[in-house]
Amino acid sequence: MGEPQDIDDLSKAELLATVVSLLSEVAELQQLVRAQSDEIARLKDLNQRPRIKPDKPSGMEPGTSGKSKRGGHGLGGRLGRGPKRTPRVAVEDEVLSPPVPPGARFKGYQDYIVQDLVIRPRVTRYRRARWVTAEGETIIAPLPPGVDGHFGPELRRFVLMQYHQGQVTVPRLVVLLKGMGIDISKRQVLRLLTEGKEGFLAEARDVLRSGLACAPWVNVDDTGARHKGKNGYCTVIGNEDFAWFGTTFSKSRHNFLDLLRAGHSDYVISQEALDYMRGRNLSASVIKLLADHPDQSFADIEAWTAHLERLGIAALDVQPNPVLIATEGALWGSVKAHGFVHDTVILSDDAGQFNVGRHALCWIHSERLVYKLDTFTEAHRAAQAQARELIWELYADLKDYRQAPSADLKAALSQRFDVIFKSRSTFAPLNRLLERLYRNKAELLRVLDYPATPLHTNGAENDIRCQVTKRKVSGGTRSDVGRDCRNAFLGIAKTCSKLGIDFWEYLGARLRVNDTPDIPNLADIVSARYAAA
């Protein structure tokens, strides 16, 4: 700033202008001081409050569950330990007799059960008798069922259980097995984890197909995954009855549609595919080229790419990308042609790649946006708190609606949604956020038309934690078969848990371990559940 002017030299008009300017600056400074005073008071209040658990957005679900009113996990009561479980294995009796004096009378037994574990290596040499017929043909006695290679089914079951469910790394598995007396190398352990697993891979794929064909809803999520030294993504698709994992190098919508094909490789031009292209604003002339051509089904990516080149679509340089939109549409046509996602709701956390078909959004992720808004004044904090309270109340009523849906309640909840998300306050960022969430009304209120649909994606987030743990413990995969086996077994273990099947017994049944009960194909169990419903 320059030297101040002498007031005596200023004219009356200049003095008036100077006074007006100074008054304006004083008003701005007063407003700033008030805002800073409010912030200082809020921080002092926070510092003086007792240290309690903060109001995190994840509390939205338990906060509206009402468990405390029913004497569950809340303040109203506590769950007991439940009935005592009986041992799942045969009990061996061992009679213990104390020294007794003469004349004592026998009064029966007092039982005392002790569970123990016997782990020891067992090496069997099968001496296979060989015979030679009169014609010179050699006959050798076959190996017992379940014996496949030089490591028995119990050892293979133990390795698979420890690696996939126990999250034990390969080096530690090698040390553990050698400590037990097993002569084995790291390469042999890797072979036990990956070789000859085609049956497991097919069963995991069939589980996905059954779920996509029959389930009323699925929730989806993804997380980072390393493969061949590169960053990739692992996507989980599942619900309360099954889970399936797929690892790729992309998290695009094209990739998600490819996963929804559940292992099929074809591309189909159908009415659903054409509707998808129209919804993504593909040029009408391009859609007409695809619709009018006699070829409507293509076996693989090579055949589909050649078709686009013959039609001249691949040479078009316009936006949106006609090759990308047409390919996504053909993938969606393949999904529908195989009977997948017919009436299925796809529930996600608002990641764009999952927005296909009948899409629903997670309420907890939406409310979290309101929770994370930065506030600077008491008026802002009051507006934020009021909006969150109204959202929580609506969320709780939507949970009740899922249990007892009705047309009148549906209309009332829809109207309340409008009132909440159309309301305006002096907090401009909150107003913009509510307006944005209002545009997602159909996806947030999908539960009104499909009451079976959950209101959150907690299930998918819980499912994908095993992949996160495996990534932290064991790092990435190096081969395609290793990646596929990891995904398949993680999905199978999760599916077994949801179906009430012990993963240990499942492995025993599939590896034909002696005295293991038979377990049907998991895909058939999943399908039977939906058929019964």
How many strand segments?
9
In order across it, which strands form the biggest sheet?
Answer: 5-4-3-8-9
Instruction: Report the structural category.
Output: alpha/beta
The helix fraction, in percent, is: 40-55%
What assembly state would you assign to the polypeptide chains in this entry? single chain
User: Averaging pLDDT over every residue, what do you get?
Assistant: 89
User: Count of helices?
Assistant: 21
> Which parts are unreliable, with pLDDT below 50 for 5 consecutive residues or more?
49-55, 68-79
The termini sit apart by 80 Å
In short:
This protein is of the alpha/beta class and 533 residues long.
Topology:
Blueprint: H1 12-48, H2 60-63, E1 130-132, E2 138-140, H3 153-165, H4 170-180, H5 186-194, H6 198-214, E3 217-227, E4 230-238, E5 243-248, H7 253-260, E6 267-268, H8 271-279, H9 284-292, E7 297-298, H10 301-310, H11 322-337, E8 345-348, E9 358-361, H12 363-371, H13 378-403, H14 407-422, H15 428-438, H16 441-444, H17 446-449, H18 458-474, H19 480-499, H20 503-510, H21 522-532
Parallel strand pairs: 3-8, 8-9
Antiparallel strand pairs: 1-2, 3-4, 4-5, 6-7
Describe the protein in words.
With 533 residues, this protein is of the alpha/beta class. The chain has a domain at 363-456. The protein contains 21 helices and nine strands. The protein has helices at residues 12-48, 60-63, 153-165, 170-180, 186-194, 198-214, 253-260, 271-279, 284-292, 301-310, 322-337, 363-371, 378-403, 407-422, 428-438, 441-444, 446-449, 458-474, 480-499, 503-510, 522-532, and strands at 130-132, 138-140, 217-227, 230-238, 243-248, 267-268, 297-298, 345-348, 358-361. Strands 5-4-3-8-9 form a five-stranded mixed beta sheet, with helices on both faces. It is extended.
